[in-house]
Amino acid sequence: MGRRVWSRIGCDCPLCGARVAGARLCSGCETDITALPGGRSRCPRCALRLPALAPACPACLGGSWAYGRTFAAFDYTPPADALIQMLKTRLRLSMAPVLARLLAAEIRRGGGLPEGCLLVPVPASRASLRLRGMNPAGEIARSLAAELALPLARGALRRRRETPRQTSLGRRARQTGATGLFAASSRVRGRHVAVVDDVMTTGSTVQAAASALLAAGAASVTIVVAARTP
Ligand SMILES: [Zn+2]
Ligand SMILES: [Zn+2]
């Protein structure tokens, strides 16, 4: 459902139950989960919280990266992780515009996405599509496209193979397991692209997605995730 429709419906804040206008958090909950205290910021590359005044984490200053920067709205910790669970586990689709609104605010604070940037959701595995009947990343991307008035390119990434569910794998297995996971369509050639996902954990999935997009000729890749595992 579009933003305009939701904004006319009286809703409850999904975290505290306070009455709010539309699919959103109350301002108190929004500040609680998104604010970074004491002038701290997130690493522009990996979106982890940085110590005060550090420009990036040491690991992100070197290395080769397929994407330029990462936007994350909040850390994947209680109580905010419940927003992701409501979408992914309880299949509350009304969480997608809530998450998109938080993400749009974070993107605007961080200087925005390139003009005409294509929003491309990370495609779900067949197993999770069967389980949920929808792709949470796709729902977030759809709401974010409406929020930011940017084009959505749902099918621009596809899985080249199915992998075991990542939650059952260790960190190293996840990192190597994602290499070559995706292929991108030629419609991204010459375009700035933002890869949209629900949660970033090791970054291996978005790195694989970004590599595929660059290989298909994307001009640049930005990562946009609702939540970052600290
Ligand atoms: Zn609240
Ligand atoms: Zn970093």
What does this entry look like structurally?
This protein has about 230 residues and is an alpha/beta fold. The chain has one domain (about 45-230): Rossmann fold. Helices cover about 35% and strands about 15% of the residues. It is built from nine helices and eight strands. The strands form three sheets. The protein has a four-stranded parallel sheet, sandwiched between helices. About 35% of the residues are buried. The chain binds zinc ion (ZN) (2 copies).
Structural class: alpha/beta
The arrangement of helices and strands along the chain is HEEHHEHHEHHEHEEHE
Number of domains: 1
Name the poorly predicted regions.
none
Beta content:
15-25%
- The strand order across the widest sheet is 3-8-7-4
**Which overall shape is indicated by the principal axes computed on the Cα atoms?**
globular
Distance between the termini: 31 Å
Overall helicity:
25-40%
In CATH's first tier, which class applies?
Answer: Alpha Beta
Rg from C-alpha positions? 17 Å
Oligomer: single chain
Enumerate how many helices there are, as a single number: 9
